[in-house]
Every structure is written in C-alpha cells, then in structure tokens.
C-alpha cells in the first residue's frame, strides 16, 4: 500500500472531491486533505509503515504533513528493529511519535531473509534467496547473548563450510564443546546442543548425518562481519 492509496481511501470514505488535477505532488495532496477535514476525527492505522512501498522520503514526508492536523491521528506498526532510521530529526518532530513496545514475539524470518538480500534497502549484489547479509547477521547479533556471540566467533574459526568439508578437519559437537569450554561459552554438550539449535534455525549452520557442524553462511561474509564488530568495540 502506498501513500496515494491511503489518501484515495480517505477521500472515498469521507466523500471528498479533490481540486488537484494531478495528484503526483503528495505534499500538496496532504495539505488539501487537511483543509477539507474540518469536522471529522480521522484515525489511520498502518501496519508495517517501514514496508518497501512506504520507505521513500517522499512517502514519509507526505504522511508527516497529513498528521499535523489536530483531527488526524496515525497509529502505525514497524517490523524492522532499525525502522527508526527511516526518519531524520525533522521527520521525527513532524510525526511526534509516541512509542509503545507491543512485539508479537514472532520470528523475524521474513525480515532477516528477504528475497533479494535487502533489508531497509541495504542491497548486496550477488546475494539472493535465503543467503545471509551483513544486515541479517547484525539482526541475529543484536538479539542474542554474549555466549552465543562467542560461539559465532568460534564457528567462524573452526567450522568448515559445506564446500570445504573435505579440505578442513571435521568439527563434531564433543570437539567443539571442548573449544567453547576454554572460552567459557558453554558448560556441557547438552547445553551446546541447545545453543546450536538457534544457529541452525537461523541458517548459520547445519549438521550432517554424523552430527558434524557445517557453516551455511559464507565464511568471508561472517569474518568481515565479526571484524566490524571488533572495530566497534575498540
């Protein structure tokens, strides 16, 4: 749904007639709607205001102009953890948001693995399907614990990718558990198995039939990501 669709629905539902011949100037259209809405109180509910159709500056600015009216209230949800980056200070002031945490606690699978490796328009050439990106790894990183981050670092060092399985030494759970105990990242094989399920569910690793651990994320991408995190902590 685009802003023009929202504006059209307002006109249809309120029986308004526009004076604009060309409705390509969204800001002018928003101002005209404000002038015409004199008696009604309008509540607009937008699910996923950070959707691709609404992310452009033009779309967001038109919405921010519309909600300046004292008779119009906007209620919106966001899906992405960094959705607030859509708005600079001027747009935040214009929207004058009140934030309420009402997470559904549902998995962010669709957001993390977008069909073209694109999260909030961060595009990575050559990445498609369910391949990870720097952005998707960062979503996982931000949502996890210190021990899980240590495990991710050790996976980058010790776990072979599927294409490397005949070149690298295999990494089974007992061997990996010994490595992680030295890093104080796990306490037992039982605990480690539970921890690794999280990595498997996020398509970072997989297990072969002998329960050897294989990376499914590109190693170079993972190493670059971890190096960025190290620089941020320096």
TrEMBL record:
UniProt KW Transferase keyword: no
Keyword vocabulary terms for this entry: DNA replication, Nucleus
Task performed by this protein: Component of the origin recognition complex (ORC) that binds origins of replication. DNA-binding is ATP-dependent. ORC is required to assemble the pre-replication complex necessary to initiate DNA replication.
Subunit field text: Component of the origin recognition complex (ORC).
Record carries keyword Nucleus: yes
Source organism (scientific name): Meloidogyne enterolobii
GO cellular component terms given for this protein: nuclear origin of replication recognition complex
Domain Origin recognition complex subunit 2 winged-helix: 178-211
Family note: Belongs to the ORC2 family.
Protein localization: Nucleus
Full protein name: Origin recognition complex subunit 2
Start and end residues of each Origin recognition complex subunit 2 RecA-like domain: 5-100
């Amino acid at each position: 749904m685009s802003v023009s669709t929202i504006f059209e629905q307002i006109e249809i539902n309120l029986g308004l007639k526009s004076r604009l011949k060309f409705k390509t100037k969204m800001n002018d259209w928003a101002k005209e709607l404000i002038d015409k809405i004199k008696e009604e109180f309008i509540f607009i509910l937008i699910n996923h205001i950070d959707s691709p159709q609404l992310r452009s500056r033009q779309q967001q600015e038109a919405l921010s102009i519309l909600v300046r009216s004292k008779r119009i209230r906007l209620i919106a949800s966001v899906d992405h953890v960094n959705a607030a980056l859509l708005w600079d200070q001027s747009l935040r002031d214009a929207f004058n948001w009140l934030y309420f945490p009402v997470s559904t606690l549902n998995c962010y699978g669709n957001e993390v693995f977008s069909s073209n490796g694109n999260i909030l328009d961060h595009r990575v050439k050559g990445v498609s399907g369910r391949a990870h990106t720097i952005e998707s790894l960062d979503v996982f990183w931000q949502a996890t614990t210190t021990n899980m981050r240590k495990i991710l670092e050790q996976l980058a060092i010790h776990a072979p990718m599927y294409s490397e399985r005949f070149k690298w030494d295999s990494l089974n759970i007992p061997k990996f558990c010994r490595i992680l105990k030295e890093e104080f990242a796990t306490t037992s094989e039982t605990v480690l198995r539970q921890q690794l399920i999280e990595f498997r569910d996020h398509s970072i690793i997989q297990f072969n039939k002998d329960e050897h651990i294989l990376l499914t994320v590109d190693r170079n991408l993972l190493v670059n990501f971890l190096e960025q995190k190290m620089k941020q902590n320096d």
